[in-house]
Each structure stands twice: as structure tokens, then as C-alpha cells.
Amino acid sequence: MSTTTVHVGYAVPRTGIPAAASFRRWVDAALRGAKRRKATELSIRIVDTSEGRALNRDYRGKDYATNVLSFEAELPPGVKLPLIGDLAICAPVVAREAAEQGKRERDHWAHLTVHGVLHLLGYDHIEDADAEVMEALETRVLADLGIADPYT
């Protein structure tokens, strides 16, 4: 596989948040699952509820914090960089959802990272057929990481 560069920024206290190495492992797993072999670069920012809410409101028009937001890179014509975009993952939402869904918090972090990376690669789940493809890929990638199907 080609070079993968993952920049991780923590806008919240790091206690209980996975280390950058874990995020890199999950990103690599998503890229392998999607059969991306080109050099890839992305940033992941771990945010609090207020920043997550502001980003969701400003970019999606939804006034609440969500678990993960994906921002695909919009490079000018002719600019060739390995940058695929940025993820913002909201730590309090991840913790709350994991508890509500009875999942290990670390597994939920992995799932949301994989989910976000697939969005950066162009996968979506708006239409049912697209959702089936994306969810099946997520499930396979997570299984390779030893993580149970997040959709059951």
C-alpha cells in the first residue's frame, strides 16, 4: 500500500480518546477495504459538542452535534495532492452513542473513523442501494479489525 498520512488534532482532553496510532490503523483499514492504493492524506479533528454543533449547523444546516462529519478536499484544477479531506469526530457524541447502543466505545470510534474515511472516498448512504454497499464495506473492514457488525 502507498503512503498514508493522518494528522490527528485533539480539541478536547485526550483522556479516554484513542491515540493517533489507533486512528491511523483504522484509516489504513478503510483504505485497504476500499482498495485505495494511492498515497493518501487526511486530517482528523476530535471536537467537543459545541464545535461539533457549530460545524454541523454551518455546513449541513442541522443545529445539533453529530458523531462524524466528513469534508472532502476541494482542490483547485490542476493541483495534484494526496489530500482527500478532513474528518471531525465529536467525542461526547461518540461516548453517548456507544453507551446507548451497548457498544464498546473504542469499537464505535473505529466504526466512525472508517465511516468517515469512506465518505471522503465518495461512498454515501443517502439512497438505499448506496447505503447497502457502504454498510457492507464498513462491516467487512471492521470484521478485519476484530470488531462486530455495528448495524446489528
From TrEMBL:
Main location: cytoplasm
GO MF entries: metalloendopeptidase activity; RNA endonuclease activity; zinc ion binding
Keyword Nuclease carried by entry: yes
Cofactor(s) recorded in Swiss-Prot or TrEMBL: Zn(2+)
The encoding gene: ybeY
Family: Belongs to the endoribonuclease YbeY family.
Pfam family, one: YbeY
InterPro entries hit by this protein: MetalPrtase_cat_dom_sf_prd (IPR023091), YbeY (IPR002036), YbeY_CS (IPR020549)
Gene3D superfamilies xref list: Metalloproteases ('zincins'), catalytic domain (3.40.390.30)
UniProt name for this protein: Endoribonuclease YbeY
Class of the enzyme per the UniProt entry, highest EC level: hydrolase
Domain of life: Bacteria
Cited function: Single strand-specific metallo-endoribonuclease involved in late-stage 70S ribosome quality control and in maturation of the 3' terminus of the 16S rRNA.
Enzyme Commission code(s) on record: 3.1.-.-
Keywords: Cytoplasm, Endonuclease, Hydrolase, Metal-binding, Nuclease, Ribosome biogenesis, rRNA processing, Zinc
One GO CC term on file: cytoplasm
Lineage of the organism: Bacteria, Pseudomonadati, Pseudomonadota, Gammaproteobacteria, Lysobacterales
HAMAP family: Endoribonucl_YbeY
Co-factor binding comment: Binds 1 zinc ion.
